[in-house]
Each structure stands twice: as structure tokens, then as C-alpha cells.
Amino acid sequence: MPGNHALDTNRVVAQHANLNITTHGSDWFFTVCAIMGVSTLVFMGLAMTKPRTHRLFHYITAGITAVACISYWTMGSGLGQTPIQAEFVRPGSSKVFAAGTREIFYVRYIDWFVTTPLLLTDLLLTAGLPWPTILITILADEIMIVCGLVGALTQTSYKWGYWVFGMFAFFFVVYELVFDGRRHANALGGSVQRTFLHCGVLTIFLWFLYPIAWGLAEGGNVIHPDSEAIFYGILDILAKPVFGFLLVFGHNKIDPLQLGLSIREPGGHVRAGEKGHFQSDNPAGVANNGATNHGTINNGISDNGVTNNGNTHYGAASHGATEHVAPDHGTIAHGTTAPGTTGHI
Questions:
Q1: Would you put residue 16 in left (φ > 0), alpha (ψ -120 to 50) or beta?
Q2: What is the pLDDT of residues 58-77, one digit of tens each?
Q3: pTM higher than 0.85
Q4: Which of 49, 141, 263, 297 falls 20 to 30 Å from 85 in CA-CA distance?
Q5: Closest of 320, 316, 311 to residue 345, by C-alpha
């Protein structure tokens, strides 16, 4: 029969809670999965239109939505969850029906543990922050996610202790975005400042709503898992695909060199944003067996010869011999010298 039978098919996998998502919640999860998947393809397609040195933010953003796509596929299938005894049973509630155990999707936290550091990397690199600041901010973010997971899996009131620890870590992340990140972005100005402002404000606003969702769902057992799915799903759509499109389109006018990102072209030494400059692997004046080759370097190509009045004179020196090439107007002279002697051509 047509329709979504994922929950029935996977009901034999692991244990299930008294209070879990219905087919409506599963349908919503698969919808978000599709949005994340399409967004990933779009970000990768946009990356292909850019030089390799300008694809960093496209790749990071595509990675965010790709991981989220897998996560939502898992939740829509009724997998990646475990039943946890609810601290608040709420027998009079029409939403949670006095259920003893509640479905907790731990796969959601695995998703966040991978994607939120990538999202912060997008933001903090856009502001041009130094790597030590980026790393400590990512560490605080991961502490926040782990505290949320442990709290969700805790059956007693001690779960709120983890919520508090997570909030302290969250406030540190907000501090770095609002103060250090904004200061660096303002110093760079222009498109950097605008892109960081738009993406940063959106991120901070949405991230303040996640602890509220946690308190109503995993923490307080106030709303049904289907409502939880809708709440988190809307937040994730705004925090990942919408954030991603704002970011990558903002980077259309940002050169990675502005952000201190020096990215090499494959097979060369060109830094991102530099045009027409190439460092030769064979600079002029490299000695070979005692002989000196004099040449000019033009756009990374070494010409072993000196051009004089339109005529090129080639001379070969070997085994320590020095060769002098005299200009001969209108002719090309070739000469060699014997070992240990000086030849004049």
C-alpha cells in the first residue's frame, strides 16, 4: 500500500517509548530531509561555478546540510532514538497523555555535534578571526551540545544541571560572535561586515530558541514529539539552508585574501585572490654543476636565454666552465666550451 510505513517497518528495531512520533511527525522529518538534500546539491552546484580557491565556504555549508539530511532521514525512519523515563509525567495533559517514557532522538545531537562547529567555522572565518579564537569557540559549542545530549538522556532533575552547563557554554559562543566576531568584521568592512551581521544575527536569534525547545520537549515533557519535530525542524531549516544561502551569496563579493585565507591552486603557489603572479620553482640564477643559467621569468615560465635586439643567444656551460655569449645582431650563435676552459663565441 502507498504511504509512509517507515515507523511500522522499523518498529522491530530497538525499544520504543510510550510517547513517540506518529506518521505525521515522520512525514515532516522526511520533508526536512528533502530540503536539506536539495540544499546540499545547490551549494555544491554553486561551488562548481567558483574557482577552487573560492569554494571553501560552499563546501563547509554543503557539509552542514548533507549531515542534517542523513540525520532527518534517520529520525523520519524512527531510528536513532531511545526511550527515556520522563521526569514530568503530566497525567492531566492532552499532549503527552501521562506517558511514562518519551522518545529521545540522540541522532539529532550527533548531527549538531558535527554541524554546529562547521556553522561556527563559516561565521568566524567570515569575520577573519584568528584560529585560536575559532578553536576555543568550537570547543564551547561542543560542550553545549554534549550537555544537551546528556541532559536529555537523564531521567531525574539533574538533567537541568546539564542544561545550565550548556547555557554557560552557549553564552560564551554568543560573546565571541557579538564582540570579537563583530569587531573583526567591522574592521574589514564592506561585504564582510554585512554578511557577518546578517548571518550572525540570524544564528544568535535562532540558537536562543533551541534551549526553549529543549525545555518544552526533552526537558519538561510539555509538548508531543510531533510538535517537537516541527519546532526543531523549522529551526534547523532556518539555521542551515537559509543561513547557508545568506552566507554563500554574501561571499560572492568577498575575496578569501581579505579574511587572511591563503589557498593554493593545485600544482602552483598562487594564493586565493592573486591574479597574474606565480612563483617559479626554478628561479633565475640556480647553479647546476658549477654553471649559472641566466634567464628571465615571465608569469612562471623560465626562458633559458637572453634576448638582445630580437635575437636569442644560447650558450652551454659544463663542469665549472664559464661561457660568455656575445650579441650578434641578426644571427643566432650556439657554442660550447670544453671543461676547464673559457670560450668566447
A1: beta
A2: 999 999 999 999 999 999 99
A3: no
A4: 141
A5: 316
